[in-house]
Give the backbone structure.
Amino acid sequence: MFEIGSSLREARTRRQIGVAQVEQATKIRGKYLRALEEEHFDVLPSQTYVKGFLRTYADYLGLDGQLYVDEYNSRFASDDDDRSARSASRAAAQRHERRLQTNVVLLALGAIVVLTVVVISAWKVSGSGHVATNTVKRHTTPHRVALPGAFLEITAIKGPSKVIVNRVGAAGKILFEGTLERGDTQAFNGKRFWLNVGAPENLLITVAGKRVHVAGYRPWVLTVTPSGWRGHAA
C-alpha cells in the first residue's frame, strides 16, 4: 500500500516537470492532474476517468501505470466499477483477438500472392530456356504486409516495445495496450490517435503510408492528426 497522490507529485518534482508540461504532453487537464496528486478523485467525472488518467500520468512519469490502477481499485473502486472494468477488459481482449485473426488472414493471403508470383516467374524462366543465376538474398527482418485502408501502422522490426494507442488523445478510448514482439503489427483506421511507445528504435511507425522518424533511445509520446504527426521524448 502506498500514497497514490504524493507518489505522483514526488515523481513529477524529481523530474522537474511542471503541471502545464504534463497537461500538454498527456492532454489531461491541469485541474485533473492536481486532483490525482491530492487524491481528490471525486473531482473527476467517473472512476473510469480516474483509472485512465492514473495509468496515463504514471506511465508518462516512467512509473508502472497498472500498479497505480490496482492500488486505486483496492482502496477506492466500487464493486460495480470493478465489474464494469472486467467487462471492458474482456471486450478489449476479444477485439484484440479479432484483430490478430484478421492480421493472420491478411498475412496468409500475402504469402499466397508472393508464392504465386514466384511460381509464375519460375515457370516463365524455365519455359524460355534461360537459367536464372542471381542469388536470392534472405532477409532477416520480419515480413510486413500493409493492411488496406490503415491510416496508422506500428510494426516491431528490431525487438519488443511497449505500446499504448488511444483514440484522439491521452484521455481517449484505449485501442491497444501491450508489448509488440519482433514481427508483430498493429494497424488502426481513423485520423486521430495518441501514442506512447517505450522503445521507438525497435518500431516502424507509418502514418498515411509515410514513415515516422523518431530520434533517440527514450520513450516517446506522439499525436497523430489528419495533417500529420508530432511528438517528443517522454
Observations:
- The first helix runs from residue 4 to 14.
- The chain has six helices and nine strands.
- Strands lie at 152-156, 161-167, 174-180, 185-188, 193-197, 203-207, 210-211, 220-225, 228-233.
- Confidence is low (pLDDT under 50) at residues 128-143.
